[in-house]
Every structure is written in C-alpha cells, then in structure tokens.
Amino acid sequence: MILVVGGTGRLGARVTKDFARAGIAFRIMARGHSQPFPERDHGDFEVFRGSLSSASDCLRAVQGCGQVVFAASGFGLKKGGTPRTVDRDGALRLVEAATDAGVRHVVMMSMHGAAADAPTNFLRMKFAAEEALKSSGMGWTIIRMSANLEQFLTVMSQPLETGGKVLVLGSGDVPVTFTSTADAAALVGLAISDPALPGQTIEWGSGVHSLNELAAAILTNGGGGEIKRIPVPALRIMSVAARPFSPFLARMATAALWMESGAAAFDPMVQRRAFPEIPVRDLKESLGPRP
Ligand SMILES: NC(=O)c1ccc[n+]([C@@H]2O[C@H](COP(=O)([O-])OP(=O)(O)OC[C@H]3O[C@@H](n4cnc5c(N)ncnc54)[C@H](OP(=O)(O)O)[C@@H]3O)[C@@H](O)[C@H]2O)c1
To answer: How far is Cα 259 from Cα 177, in angstroms, rounded to an integer?
Structure first.
C-alpha cells in the first residue's frame, strides 16, 4: 500500500491516476477542502480524510503503508494552510509518523532552489522538510521540481474567461524552467518502483520558457487577445500588500520576483539524460486543445 499525501491536488491526482492504471494499491490522504476526492469506480484505493496538522491523523494515515508520496502543499491554499504549516510542519509530522510506523521509503516533492537561506519562504520550508526526511532513517527520494507549468498557464489565462487579458507577472522575458504535471508524476512512478532512486535528490523540469512565451502560446491557442503586465515594482508591493486578503496572490508575486532574478532557470536535460524512459512533455501538450 502506498500513501499519497495530497492525492487530490494537481500533481497528486495525476500520480493516483497513474497508480490506478498500473494496478498499484494506494491510499489518498487529504482534508477534502480544496479538491473533491475521486470517485470510487476506478481502481483499488482507499481514502483517508485527515489533516497534516494532526499527529494522530498522520499516524492513522501511514498505517500499513510501505511507501509514502508527499505531494501536499499550502502554497496554493486560499485559507487553511500555508507553506509553513503544510510544506514544513505537516511534512515533519508525517515523516515522524512514517518513521514510527516502519515505512521504508518516502518520495518527497520539493522545489528547485530549496535551501536554508533561499530568498522565498516556500523554498526555505521545502528545504526543512527535505532535511527532516534525510535524517529520519527511512529510505528517501527527493524530487525538486521546477515551477508547475499548468498552474502558471491557468493563473495567466484565467482572466480571459471573463473578457480580461492574459496576465504576465514582471518583465516576462527572463527564462524559467517549468515542469508539467504529467512529467513530474512519471518520475514519482519511477521513484516508487526503481530501487536505484532512493538516496537521490533529483532536479526535475520539462522545458525552459519565458512568461512572454507562455503568454504568446496562450493567445495563439485561444485565438487572440491582449496581455496585461504587472511590472516588477507593483509585484514588490503586491508581495506584501496582498497578504491579508489573498495570501496566494502574495505568494505568486514573491515567486514571480524570484523568477525575475533568473534563479528559477536551469537546464533540465542535465538530469533527464539519466531517465530516457520518461518522455518530455512539451508546452503544446500542456496547453491542451483550443478552448
Ligand atoms: N505547484 C508548483 O509549482 C510546485 C513546484 C515545486 C514543488 N511543488 C510541490 O509539489 C507537490 C504537489 O503540488 P501541487 O501544486 O500539485 O499541490 P496542490 O494542487 O496545491 O494540492 C495540494 C494538496 O495538498 C492537500 N493538503 C493541503 N493541506 C493539507 C493538510 N493540512 N492535510 C492534508 N492534505 C492537505 C490538498 O487537499 P485538501 O486541501 O483537500 O486537504 C491537496 O490535495 C507539493 O508538495 C508542492 O509543494 C509544487
């Protein structure tokens, strides 16, 4: 049995879909707040409705599991969680419960740039979770994925639905490495099955694009429209001023400033050469068919 913490989220839902298709038994842990649980009619799985903020929920969730995938996050939550309470404290609680329950291997979703002195709170929280897992005594695989491509495409294109313009945060011309959800899920699947992966920290990305390239692709795919740019000085203000009414917007502004610095770009092919069995998913596939 494999526990997928955050198994209803963007990545977690894709991971569990892949597991179901491969006939792998799994249990989903989530609160049921941000996304519904999947229907019971596809695959061999259990649902555990619980929160990472509860040590007893964590202990109950890991019972009988040999492996755990940690794909929960407080980054995108409008309320009820933050990177501090979910990505760090929740991960620490889960790692402790998994150690006590005899789990042998944990796959931890982290992010490129995670470091004790990283310039964003999210990256510092991710690093603390990595360190706790590495010193737990369990087997571990850390996947440092780059920014989620579909999440950015959604945030940027959402205003189009109400007659607005495609949103570009910052200058838009700085290269950024993005990861598609399907691509990250494929690596999680490999980490669960390949005995060579435990003990590795893998930097994962699908491709390098500027936000202007994403905006142009959205507009081409949608048949036209205009761009609304939020300049860097406005992002600086937003990263602080938006905190009380939209923590998510404040976190997105902070992430955009980090991207503007150039730190979010790396060549994904360096590590991908070791995983030729995972095909690269390109921007066109992530955009999907014309709306
Ligand atoms: N998105 C990115 O750009 C990015 C980049 C690098 C790394 N990552 C990491 O990749 C993983 C997947 O990210 P994602 O974007 O797919 O996340 P997501 O869509 O925001 O999903 C988050 C999941 O965590 C669950 N969750 C949140 N708080 C919880 C709590 N207290 N207890 C139990 N479950 C909780 C949510 O369900 P409920 O709200 O219903 O509980 C949901 O299933 C995360 O670990 C994230 O930090 C993401």
So the answer is: 9
- Measured over the CA atoms of residue 173, residue 258, residue 126 and residue 78, the dihedral's sign is negative
Q: What is the pLDDT of residues 246-285, one digit of tens each?
A: 999 999 999 999 999 999 999 999 999 999 999 998 899 8
CATH of the domain at 186: 3.40.50.720
Q: Among 5, 33, 73, 108, name the best residue to mutate to test ligand 1's pocket (greatest count of ligand atoms within 8 A of Cβ).
A: 73
pLDDT single digits (tens) 145-161: 999 999 999 999 999 98
120 in any annotated domain: yes
* Minimum CA distance residue for ligand 1 atom 47: 73
**Contact present, 155 and 261 (Cβ < 8 Å):** no
**What is the 245 CA–ligand 1 centroid distance (Å)?**
20
CA of 70 to the centre of ligand 1 (A): 9
Domain that holds residue 78: 2-145+181-204+266-278
